[in-house]
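Sequence in, structure out. Go.
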Amino acid sequence: MAIDKLTDENFENEVLKSDKPYLAIFSATEWCNPCKMLHQSLPEFEQKIGDLIKIGELDIDSSPNTPTRYSCRSVPSIFLFKAGEAVATTTGAKTPEDLVSWVKSNLS
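Output:
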C-alpha cells in the first residue's frame, strides 16, 4: 500500500469513490511543523493499520478547493471518509498509535 498524493482534481475518484474507508490528510508540509511531524509518522501508521483503509495527503496550498469544501480551518486536518461521506475529523499531529486508535474507534 502507498500513501496517495491527493489533489483537487483526483479527490473525488480517489477518496469519495474509494471501495475502502479513506483517511484524507489536509496539510501544508512546506511551512507547518505539526504537518511535517504527521507526515513523517505516516509510514509507521500505514504499517500498523494494514489494509484496513486507504491513506492520502492533500497539500492545501496547491489544492485549496477541497479543504474549503470541507471547512478545513487548521492543518493538519484529518478526515475519515466512508462510502463517500466524511464520518469523523480531527486536527493536529498524532502519533501512529493515536491515529490507529482514532481510525478503529470511528470505523466500528
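Check: Residues 32 and 75 are 7 Å apart (CA to CA). The two ends are 22 Å apart (CA to CA).
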